[in-house]
Amino acid sequence: MIYLLFALALQSQTTIGPVDLYQPLFPRNFAKGDDGTFYILDPEEHQVRHYSTQITRLKTFGGKGEGPGEFSFSSSINYLDGAVYVEDTGFFTLFHDDGKPREKIRKPFDADWFPTGKSWIALKRSKSMQYIELIWLSRDFKQQRILATDLDTSFEGTSFNPEGRPIPPAFSKMRNRMAIADKQRFSIKVFDTHTGTLLHTIKEKVERIPYDREWGEISAKRMLAMLTAYNALDSTPSSFNFPNYFPPIQKLEYTVDDHLIAYGLLRPGRIKPDFAFDLSGKRVPIKGGPEDKIFRVLMQYNGFAYVNIFKNEEVFIQKAQLSELPAILAASKNR
């Protein structure tokens, strides 16, 4: 019965699927404009596709290359202050919101880059690969400030620790707030990304969960097999090194209504939402994260929700009334 309701819901709402879009609907390839229209990056075709609030295609722009309005190895798309940012290996290609080329911005160094529209946030790994710096930079790159340094203990000599990787930062909907977690204890710092200033620090009491060594060994072997398959290791570690306890924070994520959710461990291999905060750092009830195995809420606009659907190994975007969203999400979890 639940599956039938779910199928009928899909038929009754506006949906675009892989016939129209070449598998680019993962959240990092989705950007919402100020007027509710949205942009989809297709890395394979080197294109940006602009859609209306009715999910009809307005235009397509971009191309392969390094010239104005071109990109070759794109990895993400953002919309900020009337500009579309397409990230390439060494630079950002910017477009006006109507698709006309605007400018190209070359990255000053190798890092994971996050534009905010008025500044930049970079996640830079040290040359020794032992720590990661979270760096704030001004729009022209002339000013920079280290906001946080996080040790990366994934590799310690000849030992491998799968729980030693730093937790990626989380950005609010407008990218004007950024949260970074201390992976060893419950401590979350929230920054104003436009100025690089610390707004507040969130702390909570958490239960320490002893590390499951058997699960850790299985996870480490799988990860090593994957890294080896991609030739990502210079040499294979001779042993595994595990902590005594799981990190109290497994992941941070902002919802579409800008509530920050801290995820903790439910059991090995599974995490659950533990705490939620608003932009001021005040504790708020957990509404549930925007992520689900089948759905992810990409945006909310004018009474509608735009939802990412994974069905039969294909990817879609569905538009539904905001009031119907809880039922659709509940149905997806019980399929």
Indicate the radius of gyration in whole angstroms: 21 Å
Number of strands: 26
The best one-word shape is globular
Characterize the biggest β-sheet: 4 strands, antiparallel
Please, could you describe this protein's structure?
- By secondary structure, the chain is mainly beta.
- Helix content is 11%, strand content 41%.
- The protein has a four-stranded antiparallel β-sheet, covered by helices on one side. A four-stranded antiparallel β-sheet has the order 2-3-4-5, with no helix packed on it. Strands 6-7-8-9 form a four-stranded antiparallel β-sheet, with no helix packed on it.
- A hairpin with a 5-residue loop joins strand 11 (119-125) and strand 12.
- 26% of the residues are buried.
Main traits of this protein?
Thrombin, subunit H; mainly beta; 335 residues; four-stranded antiparallel beta sheet; 41% strand; 6-blade_b-propeller_TolB-like; 3 helices; globular
List the helices and strands and how they pair.
Layout: H1 2-12, E1 14-16, E2 30-32, E3 38-42, E4 47-51, E5 57-61, E6 76-80, E7 83-87, E8 91-96, E9 101-106, E10 112-115, E11 119-125, E12 131-138, E13 144-151, E14 155-156, E15 159-160, E16 170-171, E17 177-181, E18 188-192, E19 197-202, H2 213-229, E20 239-240, E21 251-254, E22 260-267, E23 270-277, E24 295-301, E25 304-311, E26 314-321, H3 325-333
Parallel strand pairs: 15-20
Antiparallel strand pairs: 1-26, 2-3, 3-4, 4-5, 6-7, 7-8, 8-9, 10-11, 11-12, 12-13, 14-15, 16-17, 17-18, 18-19, 21-22, 22-23, 24-25, 25-26
InterPro entries: 6-blade_b-propeller_TolB-like
